[in-house]
Amino acid sequence: MTAYSARAGDRLPQASVADTAAALADLLGPPIAKGVILRRPRMVALAERLDLDRRMVRRMQALRRRYGEGPLMLRLPGRSQALVFAPEDVRRVLDWTPDPFSPDSSEKHAALAHLEPRGSLISRGPARDVRRRFSDAALASDRRVHPLADRFATVVRQEVDSLLRWADRAGSMIGWSDFVVAWSAIVRRVVLGDAAREDHELTDMLVRLRAAANWAFLHPGHPALRARFHRRLAQHLARAEPGSLAAAAADLPAAPGTAPTDQVTQWLFAAGPAGIAGFRALALLATQPGAADRAAAEAAGGGPELPFLRAAFLEGLRLWPTTPLILRQTTQETLWHDGAMPAGTGIAIVAPFFHRDDETLPFADRFHPALWLDGGRESRLPAGWPLLPFSGGPGKCPARHLVPLLASLTLAALLERHRFHMGDPGRLDPARPLPSALDPFSLAFAVRPAA
Ligand code: HEM
């Protein structure tokens, strides 16, 4: 890493008032309107129609042209806030998490405290370490294939079969409202076991907590509902049903301060966007040339590896990241090339900018799964260029292998013997740049048995 050589008195570039206002509108506007913790379908549809997320990329490119590679300080009353542009700065922020770059930013804390006040993401010091270790161990964060993968494959197969049977009988389109029923059942069974399959109320309670969390500081919260949700989750975890993540968690040595239900709330909550990403990947596979045949051939080969389906899923997350803003907050003053950044500064890494910077990446707006296949990133990206669907460094998502595993198993079960025809394929016309946002709630597919 290059040495950061500024002295404490040097000042980082600062955006003008007008550029700060434009940055807030274009960078925060789309994620906040769409709902940070729970998506609002009408706003998600509007974002696709107006190609709103393109503005995030364009704004970052304009700021980079005007102010250089930063970090750039925004001019905000009462809040010190920075944007990062240089790949080496992104790497530094992620690699030096949680100190001096804590994931526990004020905004994230306010939002997540509605659901999981003792969650690892909004904890600090030894409490964060112990909570993060719990998720790492139960989710087998370093393993490409989770030890319980065989059981997960059975669960996925059963739920997808019942979805496909329903589609055959109804002879109609499969839409989000059908897919999400199957996906939620998969998630409850994988995380908590078969006895939780029908516990729709648990999912509904979490939806209400997430809706309040969208408002962060501005919503008083539902403390009674939260307590009820955590009690019910604790009962599910206590069963430690064999073959579930609850059992994997129960096998871990009990460490004081872990707060298991708070960590598992994050798992259940984050499985929502994973379903959205899986459904978008299905749309890519249905529309991009040759993709469905390749997927079907891979699915027929069996096994949990499924490299192409994983790559297609990850490519969907590059194109439409479900965590568009990765937020950190500095715990002490930090020095950069051009100046010092005060303690308590919020840092935003704008994922869509790095994923879709068409001034740097020739394939920015195309489906390019080769990026995620062996050696793809090294050979196709400028050195050190970040793609961050799951963040990076010690704060990266502990489900970065588990999520692609579950999603690729689901896509394999869907595509092995069926063809999906998107109702409105023009939305993902391979001859045109892919849209900056893709509303999953309005996707629908006609399903036919493969010839
Ligand atoms: C599309 C699916 C998902 C994506 C794109 C994703 C992405 C991320 C990202 C970017 C972070 C870092 C957030 C930050 O720094 O503020 C994160 C954290 C986390 N994710 Fe995921 N995630 C997904 C699904 C899941 C699932 C299904 C689970 C659990 C089964 C999970 C467990 C966690 C946990 C426990 C953390 C907190 C880590 C920490 O405190 O350091 N994620 N995820």
UniProtKB/TrEMBL annotation:
It holds the Pfam family p450. Belongs to the cytochrome P450 family. This is Cytochrome P450. It comes from Rhodocista pekingensis. The lineage of its organism: Bacteria, Pseudomonadati, Pseudomonadota, Alphaproteobacteria, Rhodospirillales.
